[in-house]
Hints:
Probable serine protease inhibitor. This is Serpin family protein. InterPro entries: Serpin_dom, Serpin_fam, Serpin_sf, Serpin_sf_1. Belongs to the serpin family. By secondary structure, the protein is α+β, with helices and mostly antiparallel strands. The protein folds into two domains: 4-155 and 287-349, 2-Layer Sandwich (Antithrombin, Chain I, domain 2), CATH 3.30.497; 157-283 and 354-389, Alpha-1-antitrypsin, domain 1, CATH 2.30.39. The chain is built from eight helices and 18 strands. A seven-stranded antiparallel beta sheet has the order 1-18-17-9-8-7-10. A hairpin with a 3-residue loop joins strand 14 (323-334) and strand 15. The longest helix has 17 residues, at 4-20. It is elongated, with a radius of gyration of 23 Å. The protein starts with a helix and ends in a 17-residue tail after the last strand.
Amino acid sequence: MIDGAVRASNELTARWARHACTGETTALSGAGLWPLLALLAAAADGPGRAELRDAVGRDPADADRGAREVLEILARGTAVDGAFGVWHRAGLPLEPWWLDAAPGGSRGELSGDPDADRPRLDAWVERNTRGRLTRMPVALEPDTLLVLATALSVDTRWRTPFQDFPFRPRSGPWTGRPRGLAGLNSSGADLDPLALAETPGGPLTVLTVAGLDDVDVHLLLGAPDRPAGDVLAAGVDALDGGHPLRRGAELLAEPVARTAPGVTLTTVPSFTPAPTLRTTTVRFDVTAEHDLLADPALFGLATVSTDDPRGHFPRISRTPLKIGQGAQDVNAAFTAEGFKAAAVTAFGVAAGSAPPQDEAPVLSAVFDRPFGFLARHRPTGLVLVAGWVAEPEEWPEDASSGPGFW
Length: 406
């Protein structure tokens, strides 16, 4: 059961992905952004409060509680770590509500000297992303009065590791690479990791790669001409129960298998008639930077980023405040052994064998063209990181040829 704060965060992820994922390699974390927007909604008034309410999808009166719920999920995860940080300019008068409502975590003062403050905030980022990211994504300006930030990191190993191999797709945009791609394949008797989602935009193949702890990564493949943002948004909706999923044995029906993008159904000689799932995908390492004020209306920031002599956040301080900067840096890497990711989001507030005797069905799922991915906290359903892979890693030049090219 997806609870209110998690569902609201996932809806932001889907909406952001639909807007930001245009077909190039990228990644984003709605789970890193949503708690900050929820806190700002609870602290705002006037038109800005209404805009933030719409972006957050939650009543501002209890949005701060939702923010703490999501941050608690990140903090208590096994494969995911999360942190919240807030730094105020020394001497900025703070309201009692803000002192009580702001989540626990790192709290500190800004001296007003960027050269002195920047190393402390960068060190916080590096410490809370396990070294995958090393800088606070917003600049410290002379008029920066407040910095709000979240950091999350994901580090999980697969229950069933993949095998590396040099992969040369036979068709599509990834053909013609001289060295081939850094391919990954696996094979097993469990068919349930593969699913077909029936969505309004067409069928969507969903492959769940299970982590040893509490995070899974879902690979998403739509029709070749389906927009990247639509694939990711539909994937979030399907995993939240919004679209029906057909799993495992249901896909052994030939008409069903034919409708699943990237999936084929064949029979092979085998010792037993038990079916097999074979998966082929690629290594990827994605890095992205997002300016959250490039389209402020998407995040409910249009009004609260403008000058107003009364300010927009009276529950934080009687000093007039506005959002001066908003940014997120993300990195995500998918390998044969596991998945690692990190995101920092911040606002600057300014101001072997014998011959086989039988045949068995084989479901093959091949991700040999651009696809989406979602890293998801299994116990709660919170989508941690979403992204699109347009450029996978190439097979290393000094690597052996492995088991052969496809």
